[in-house]
Amino acid sequence: MKRRDYTDFVKVIDNGDMDLKRLLLNEWFFLSLLVAYAALLIYNPSFLNPNLIDIQTVLILAALIIANTGIFISGGTDFIASKILERFKDLKSVSIVAVMLTVLISMFITNDAALIVLVPMTVSIGRMAGKSTSRIVVLEAIGANVGSTLTPFGNPQNIILFRDYGLSIQSFFAGSIPLFLILLAVLLIFSLLLIKSSVITQQKKKVTYNVRLFYTSLILFITGIFGFLAGFDGYFFLGVSIVSILVLLLLKPKDYTIRNTLLRVDFFLIFTFVLIFLVINSVRSSISIEINGALSIFLLSALLSQLISNVPTTVLLTGKTAFVPLLWGVNIGGNGTMVASLANLIALRRSAAGRIWDFMRISGLFLLITLVIGALSVTYKYL
Predict the structure, then answer these.
(1) Rounded Cα distance, 316 and 36, in Å
(2) pTM of this prediction?
């Protein structure tokens, strides 16, 4: 598939040359979901129901996406990238630092939010060093899924499991730590094998950035993270989004118009999440699954995550079996297809790479290896 360049996409819109072919190439996933939802409405008109949308989650993601847009267009990610390149001169070293940083951050601010911050920075590093970062972005997506596995607040499925099973922190960690260590070990091996050593030379160009836009947007982004951790309601995140848009318009770079500033906000991604909830929750309300056995629930949850993502899979299967097999299944199942985890979709969109088959090949191999290890571990534990 041809490389997806979101910058060129924005330029095309600015020049008034937007056509159907380019829209299909750049927003095929959104359009596929739209067609699927239309088909579901024909099947059952009652699916036209706003209650199917997790408004709270959509508003949280929107606030983070919009605030991060200011960080990105300010040139702040380029500045941070230049500092990293000053310290590390080998592509493999930069890659491992980026992936491990993703693992660490996703333990605390969720896998989705970690990628919203780190993928643009990685793209900046590649652009400045003249190196492809497509594989690094894939490994970062896997790293976000790995890091978020450890904590009960690292991703949405862990939050659901922690609450629905009434777990203590100790009992949750008893199940998550062994899984995290397995996934981390495989990720480190992937990082060492897939990224070749290559000397990188930073361009001899002073990197400047819009200081006011960068730090104001950073404060807004941190505010959104704090609101999420504090459990604030949707109105708070709506307010953060509105303020972030105003900041974008008031502090935009000099060479930006109001129009292309707004177009830098990935509204398609926000509405993609809306459609994901509509489609998946419509399907979920129409089916019922009964299954017994730890290994069966582990395999089912991991494989079902490939089709409808791991969060709705968690909702569907919670209470069907013991906590540990389901925890392992939905977290291992976050890798593989681009829809297995919302974090995967974010990584692909924020990288502007569009290399879906490259992503699925690496992430799919990671899924296969960890699925086998997980199946053996669950079988051994529950013999």
Answers:
(1) 20
(2) 0.74
